[in-house]
Amino acid sequence: MKSVKVLGTGCANCRNTIKLIEEVAKAAGVAIQIEKVEALPEIMSYGIMATPGVVIDGKVIHAGGIPDRKKVGNRSPPSPGNG
Fold first, then answer.
1. Looking at the domain assignment, is residue 63 inside a domain?
2. N or C: where does the chain have the smaller number of CB atoms within 10 Å of the terminal CB?
3. pLDDT tens by residue, 39-66
4. Residue 79 CB neighbour total at 10 angstroms
Protein backbone atom coordinates (compact mmCIF):
# COMPACT_ATOMS: atom_id res chain seq x y z
CA MET A 1 0.00 0.00 0.00
CA LYS A 2 1.32 3.42 -0.94
CA SER A 3 1.36 6.21 1.61
CA VAL A 4 0.16 9.47 0.04
CA LYS A 5 0.15 12.85 1.76
CA VAL A 6 -1.57 15.88 0.29
CA LEU A 7 -0.07 19.00 1.80
CA GLY A 8 -2.28 22.07 1.92
CA THR A 9 -4.64 24.15 3.99
CA GLY A 10 -7.89 22.81 2.55
CA CYS A 11 -8.38 24.91 -0.59
CA ALA A 12 -10.33 23.70 -3.64
CA ASN A 13 -7.08 22.67 -5.38
CA CYS A 14 -6.18 20.49 -2.38
CA ARG A 15 -9.57 18.76 -2.46
CA ASN A 16 -9.34 18.28 -6.23
CA THR A 17 -5.83 16.85 -5.87
CA ILE A 18 -7.09 14.26 -3.38
CA LYS A 19 -9.89 13.31 -5.77
CA LEU A 20 -7.44 13.02 -8.68
CA ILE A 21 -5.06 10.80 -6.70
CA GLU A 22 -7.92 8.53 -5.64
CA GLU A 23 -9.09 8.23 -9.26
CA VAL A 24 -5.59 7.47 -10.61
CA ALA A 25 -4.93 4.87 -7.90
CA LYS A 26 -8.29 3.18 -8.50
CA ALA A 27 -7.72 3.06 -12.26
CA ALA A 28 -4.26 1.55 -11.72
CA GLY A 29 -5.49 -0.91 -9.10
CA VAL A 30 -3.09 0.49 -6.51
CA ALA A 31 -4.03 0.52 -2.83
CA ILE A 32 -3.30 3.88 -1.18
CA GLN A 33 -3.62 5.50 2.19
CA ILE A 34 -4.20 9.26 1.89
CA GLU A 35 -3.34 11.65 4.69
CA LYS A 36 -4.29 15.31 4.51
CA VAL A 37 -1.60 17.50 6.09
CA GLU A 38 -2.81 21.01 6.98
CA ALA A 39 -0.29 22.13 9.60
CA LEU A 40 1.96 24.77 8.05
CA PRO A 41 5.11 23.75 9.97
CA GLU A 42 4.75 20.16 8.72
CA ILE A 43 4.07 21.35 5.14
CA MET A 44 7.16 23.55 5.27
CA SER A 45 9.24 20.65 6.62
CA TYR A 46 8.89 19.06 3.17
CA GLY A 47 10.23 22.22 1.50
CA ILE A 48 6.82 22.96 0.04
CA MET A 49 6.24 26.67 -0.47
CA ALA A 50 3.21 26.38 -2.80
CA THR A 51 0.25 24.10 -2.18
CA PRO A 52 -1.04 21.61 -2.76
CA GLY A 53 1.96 19.40 -2.40
CA VAL A 54 1.95 15.66 -2.98
CA VAL A 55 4.22 13.23 -1.12
CA ILE A 56 4.20 9.56 -2.08
CA ASP A 57 6.07 7.10 0.13
CA GLY A 58 8.07 9.96 1.65
CA LYS A 59 9.10 11.57 -1.66
CA VAL A 60 7.76 14.97 -2.78
CA ILE A 61 6.49 14.52 -6.35
CA HIS A 62 4.58 17.78 -6.81
CA ALA A 63 4.08 21.25 -5.38
CA GLY A 64 1.79 24.09 -6.43
CA GLY A 65 -1.53 23.61 -8.23
CA ILE A 66 -3.30 20.45 -9.24
CA PRO A 67 -0.85 17.90 -10.64
CA ASP A 68 -1.38 16.44 -14.09
CA ARG A 69 -2.92 12.96 -14.05
CA LYS A 70 0.12 11.55 -15.89
CA LYS A 71 2.49 13.13 -13.35
CA VAL A 72 0.73 11.44 -10.45
CA GLY A 73 0.65 8.07 -12.21
CA ASN A 74 4.14 8.14 -13.73
CA ARG A 75 6.14 9.76 -10.95
CA SER A 76 4.86 7.72 -8.06
CA PRO A 77 7.39 5.28 -6.63
CA PRO A 78 6.99 1.67 -7.83
CA SER A 79 5.01 -0.81 -5.79
CA PRO A 80 7.00 -3.50 -3.98
CA GLY A 81 7.91 -6.21 -6.46
CA ASN A 82 7.32 -3.94 -9.47
CA GLY A 83 10.79 -2.52 -9.69
1. yes
2. C
3. 999 999 999 889 999 999 999 999 999 9
4. 14
